[in-house]
Amino acid sequence: MSAAEWKKKCEAEWSLQGAPMPDSLDWKSVYESKPLGRNLLRNASPHGLSKDTPPPEPDLPDVPPRGPPRFQPDGDFSGWTTNTEVLPYDTTGIPEGVVICELPRYSWFSMEQVVDLKAEGLWDELLDDFQPEIVIQDWYEESQLHQSIYQLHVKLLAADKSTVISEHTVNPTEDLSAYTHNWKEVSHVFSGYGPGVRHVHFLHRLKNSFINGFFPTLFTGSSVIVKPTKTSS
Length: 233
What we know:
11% of the residues lie in helices and 30% in strands. It is mainly beta. β7 and β8 (214-215) form a beta hairpin. α1 (3-14) runs parallel beside α2.
């Protein structure tokens, strides 16, 4: 196909009428990259779980495990930069003088990725002038480990990867008054964010607990999707 035909194919595929589509772009490469409507995060479900199936019930060992405590869950975290922060013991609510045999040891397990929007096939004019919606979604487990078990921080960054053009933070408080064990959805749509966005920095943290065994907070279905739509002003 000719360059003009590839351009027309892209326009029809993603309904890009009204979006800037300069002739100078390699529209065959853009089409093959399919940057619109797909998840730009790599390895979205490292635990091999699906939001369409309830999270697995905790594995309660018959005998407490020996050896040092664990602070990182099992999983294939390729594509993610990970970090573990072990927290001090939480003695909140324990009356003075009360003897406690053992307390849970909490830790945050952080995972982050930086998406290069141009490397994924998007182009300057689309990002700067059209400013397509950037949709964030994540699912985390109601692990019931603590009132704070999940945090999300997403930033839209300029080409230098440090200038923040827009950002969104989620830090929910869990209701522990009744036991529920499902996936909880977190989502946000960036729109009208202004020119200059070239990267998306996605970071979430999940809390784990160790007391006579390791108990994680799992996640699945993390996504960053650029949609060929523009929020009308």
